[in-house]
Design brief:
Low-confidence stretches: none
Distance between the termini: 41 Å
Number of helices: 11
Strand order of the largest sheet: 3-2-1-4-5-7-6
């Protein structure tokens, strides 16, 4: 509850709303995003990226709810013990995953330009470094090839348009060290409440096989 209230106040400072207004919107959970999507659903990858950057997409409030759920805390728990790693967080959301690792690791973060990136940059400040670009492929530069010990992508891949998911996976492959690890949680379902989710399950599994990522735990893949 304390974490929820603190995060609600941080969002309120960012949006200019009262904390009570932020909490009232967060109570609606996924409806915030679903309704925004259904009003004007994107028809291509560029439009989908623009949707996630739009300040009216409702994600700040939906993610406030999600970031304070027991299931999300269970996903965060393994990240709290990581230290001395060079880490890339793909899909920052509210910045919580980067936040729990920033003090003990060298953390780079990628988020699409727009509201979530603006909020996370304000929240995290200079504790992390940011990759810039409207796609991960553009953001990964020559200096980032094979540099990351760990890539974290929690509930990220399902939000990528089918026309671009292959490019995102190639960029992650490029960024990860030969013996690096991927910590991922994919929600390729729940299209009833999240109509923007894409089922990339088969694509993801085939990519893991191709690049030698072997699942060693519930959400951990290690590159052999």
């Amino acid at each position: 509850i304390a974490r929820y209230n603190a995060l609600a106040h941080t969002i309120a400072e960012f949006t200019g709303e009262t904390p009570e207004m932020v909490v009232a919107k967060a109570v609606s959970g996924s409806n915030n995003v679903r309704l925004a999507w259904e009003v004007n659903p994107p028809t291509d990858a560029r439009g989908e990226r623009a949707f996630y950057g739009d300040k009216t997409n409702g994600y700040l409030y939906d993610l406030l709810n999600w970031n304070c759920q027991p299931q999300y805390e269970q996903l965060l728990a393994p990240l709290r013990g990581i230290s001395g790693q060079r880490v890339l967080v793909v899909g920052a959301g509210l910045g919580t995953e980067a936040d729990v690792m920033a003090d003990r690791n060298e953390v780079d973060v990628f988020e699409l330009p727009g509201v979530l990136k603006d909020f996370a940059m304000r929240r995290l400040g200079t504790r992390v470094d940011w990759l810039h670009g409207d796609t991960l492929g553009k953001a990964i530069g020559a200096d980032d090839c094979g540099e990351y010990d760990l890539i974290v992508a929690i509930d990220t891949l399902e939000h990528i348009h089918p026309d671009e998911v292959g490019d995102v996976l190639v960029a992650m492959e490029k960024a990860l060290k030969p013996k690096g690890s991927l910590y991922a949680h994919n929600n390729f379902g729940q299209q009833d409440i999240y109509p923007m989710h894409h089922n990339h399950g088969a694509t993801f599994a085939a990519w893991c096989d191709r690049v030698g990522l072997k699942q060693t735990g519930g959400n951990l893949w290690v590159r052999s």
